[in-house]
Amino acid sequence: MIYESPDGGQTVYERQPGKTGRKLVKYKELPAWHMDVKEFNDMIGHADDFPALKEQLIQLKTLWALCKKE
Questions:
Q1: Which of 1, 13, 32, 46 is deepest in the core (most CB within 10 A)?
Q2: Which strands sit side by side in the sheet containing 23-27, from one edge to the other?
């Protein structure tokens, strides 16, 4: 079997050599608050369209700055 992981080991698929079909072997469940870089960048890109989202991003940035000082 050949084992492949598109995300550095979080998700693992297996397939037979020479075949294209694959089977999910392992999937790490992420916490509800987790987001990938693309999702975060999409939110930033739409912040001006959604004032509540923009405010939350401002608060997140402030909180992060305070955390880094500790």
A1: 13
A2: 2-4, 11-15, 23-27
Q: What global pTM score does this model have?
A: 0.58
Cβ-count burial 17-44 (b if 16+ within 10 Å, e if not): eeeeeeeeeeeeeeeeeeeeeeeeeebe
Distance of CA 70 to the CA centre of its chain: 26
Residue 36 is predicted with a pLDDT of 85
* pLDDT one-digit tens code per residue, 18-47: 988 999 998 777 788 988 899 999 999 999
